[in-house]
Structures are given as C-alpha cells and as structure tokens.
Amino acid sequence: MLLKLILFLVIGLVSGTVGTIVGLGGGIITVPALLFLASRFSEVEHITPQIAVGTSLMLVIITALSSTLSYARQKRVDFSSGWSLFLGSGPGAILGAWLTRYFTGGLFFIIFGVLMISIALLLTFGDRLKVGRVKWSVRREFTDAEGNIYRYGYHRTIALTGGFGVGLLSGLFGIGGGALLVPLMVLLFRFPPHVATATSMFVIFLSSITGSITHLFQGNIEWMAVLLIAPGAWVGGKLGAWISRKMSSTALMWALKLAIAVVAIRMIVEGLS
Which stretches are annotated as coiled coil (predicted)? Predict the structure, then answer.
C-alpha cells in the first residue's frame, strides 16, 4: 500500500512539474501512468481508458490552477487572450469528453500513441516551421513583471477554431491540450513564449473544468486516484512554474520528448497486440 501511495504521489509531482514547464497540463504523463498501474495492480484494474482520461482531466484542473496562480504572481498570464481562446476550447472539451465512450481499449492506445508521437515531433521541430503571419483582428500589448512590453495579436476566427480543436483533444485524451495550444500561440499569433506557456495553463484550467464535468456525468472519474495524485500535482504545478522562471528547461524538454516517444511506442504496441 505504501508503494502504491508513493507511486501516485510521484505521478502527480512529475506530471505537474513537467506539464507546467512546457504548458502541457500533465495529462500526457498521467493517462499512460494510470493505464500502466491498472495493468499491474488489482485494486485499480477497473481503470479503463475512459476513466484514465476523466481522472487525468480532473487532475489537470489542479495542476493548471496551481501553475496559473504562480504564473499570475509573475505577471506572465494574458487573461484577456486566455478567455478568448477558452470560448473555443470549452465547447471542444465537452464534445471530446462525450466522444470517449466510442473508443475501445486497443483503438484508444493506438490513437493516443500516435498523438503523443505527433506532440513530440511538434515540440522538436515546431520552432523551425515557417508559418505565414496571421492578420490580427485583435491587437495586444502586454507588460511583464520586469517591465518588458510585448506587442502581438490574434485572429478571432482562427483563435476560436484552434481553441476548439485543442479543447476537443483535451476532453478526448485528458492531456490538457497545451502541446498544441502553445505552438498555435507562438507560431501563428507571435505570442512571447513565456507568455504563451503561462496563458496556456490558464486556458487549460478553464477547459479542463468543462471537460471534467462531462466525464463526471459519465462516471469516468476514479476519485481515490484523484485524491492520491492531487497533492503531488499541486506541488508540481508550483514547482514547474518556479523552475521555468529560474532556469533553462532545454535538458528537461529533451527528456520529456524522449519519454513521450518511449511511452507512445509502448502504447501503440499494446494497442496492436
């Protein structure tokens, strides 16, 4: 029992820390971890892909709230842009959560694995993509805690459409959606990276609430796992925000990409077997 308790706490701490640093939300670690534990321990063998996603999304709320509060104190969150993106991601998360009922175990493993590999590739090569500048319908001027002024903007229709897609994946796979939202903000709308990461966590917090409510009504949340993982997720959210401000996350990013690829391949093999 002590070993399982430690495992749950470590899952929360790692997913919260890593997810906050890169704006992922942590679900990309939580979902595979829960499915792995379900295959090893009889007490949690009832955790299906749908329950893993619903439980993960509930935990993403905790991680995202913790990191958003920390980022807000650092004056890195553009709340106005965040609310605009949530107008798309909120409904998308509801639809994604509802669609999980149609996934079988093997199909879920395969699609999730492919998505994880895609995210790893996006994290690796996203900054090399040559994306044409989007015409802004909304212009933003943001001043951070150091007094630096940034000017950027976004197109309302593209923001709503992109936000909807991010929310859909969030509700469907419980990953938070930040791995797609941050590149969208940086590559298309020219958000400063550190503002994009922080604002992404705020959007993830809001959309995870709507997705979790849908999963709650479908009975897709394992509350014991939430209670055991939540403390680590909360601490990880604050730790990740602190690390992202104090030191370079380059090495951690490469470790994350490697971990994503390894887990993705394992899940695809599991789905095909």
Answer: none
